[in-house]
Design brief:
Layout (H helix, E strand, L loop, with lengths): L1 E4 L7 H8 L5 E8 L6 E9 L2 H7 L9 E5 L2 E6 L27
Antiparallel strand pairs: 1-3, 1-5, 2-3, 4-5
């Protein structure tokens, strides 16, 4: 997976695919839509069919270093996304941390 940021709205998914296809076969491009504006956010994830293609796209650099690619007049920052450990989330309501004695709402 390759993380690409700096995507302008005017750059189509087809143009992104055409450019990054030079590094290897693309399985899919995942874009995120802002729920408030209904517009594509300025980043995407490109899923390649091989890890070699991702390494080519970042010129063999490991995270957190990034590589800038130019598509026309646009500069896109690319890097391998960092893996985050699973986060533990607690519900805000009725959460009682530690061994405190909390009242249960009725």
């Amino acid at each position: 997976i390759l993380f690409v940021c700096g995507l302008p709205e005017s750059l189509s998914e087809e143009e992104i695919s055409e450019f990054f296809d030079q590094f290897g076969t693309i399985e899919k491009i995942e874009t995120v839509i802002d729920q408030d504006t209904q517009r594509r956010k300025h980043f995407c994830f490109i899923v390649f069919t091989s890890t070699e293609a991702v390494e080519k796209a970042v010129n063999g650099k490991n995270p957190p270093r990034s590589v800038v690619h130019k598509i026309g007049k646009f500069r896109l920052e690319c890097r391998i996304p960092r893996r985050r450990p699973d986060r533990i989330t607690y519900p805000r309501r009725n959460y009682c941390p530690g061994s405190h004695h909390c009242e249960t709402p009725s």
